[in-house]
Structure of FMN reductase:
Amino acid sequence: MKVLMLNGSAKPQGNTYRALYEVGEQLKKEGIDYEIFQIGAAPLRDCIGCGQCTEKGCVFDDDKVNEFVAKAKEADGLVFGTPVYYAHPSGRVQSFLDRVFYSSGRAFAFKPGASVAVARRGGTSASFDVMNKYFGISQMPVAGSTYWNLVHGRVPGEAELDAEGMQTMRNLAKNLAWMLKCFEAGKAAGVALPDTERGNQTNFIR
Ligand SMILES: Cc1cc2nc3c(=O)[nH]c(=O)nc-3n(C[C@H](O)[C@H](O)[C@H](O)COP(=O)(O)O)c2cc1C
């Protein structure tokens, strides 16, 4: 089994990476593979709501969104990490995930997910809330930990000094691994996926 993580910081080895690395190394100890996908620093489009998403994902193919979607479809679980900018997830990560989920969110149903917010000091829990909303609307069970998934640090590498933050990452990984194994065991025992009801989509005015 494999967990795909998104480093939503343009810094490939910053604090968000460090937090995700802690999750990944613990996953490995639990027998689960992982990959940290770098969002990178190249220009990144936001969603323009064109509604032209296809089976292959977003119509815009000049950044990494569709590459990520292809990997996410293959993964068994997803973890999204974001640096906190002005008390919200970075604009970069929100633009990226809006397009990932608007084009392909249904493909991730029943895969467990978790998000991680990393900041110098403030805005972590607000950012964590925003990130978790992608899971809730996509039928994705959310893995928890022994605290909300928050890590503190300013300059790259400082996250490692946040002892409770690192512990929270390791416990998140243990819980996520446990969920993945339970789902696998359920599948092997013949537990069917829920039969999703669709059809009602009301826009409050009719
Ligand atoms: C534009 C910008 C806005 C930021 N806003 C916040 C903030 O609201 N709260 C905070 O505690 N840290 C804030 N920071 C600091 C980063 O969240 C912090 O340095 C974090 O460790 C960066 O993660 P990274 O190394 O993965 O990029 C901000 C940094 C930048 C560049």
Summary: The CA atoms of residues 73 and 108 lie 7 Å apart. The chain is about 40% helix and 15% strand. The helical segments are 15-29, 65-74, 91-104, 124-136, 163-188. The beta strands are 2-7, 33-38, 77-85, 88-89, 113-119, 150-152.
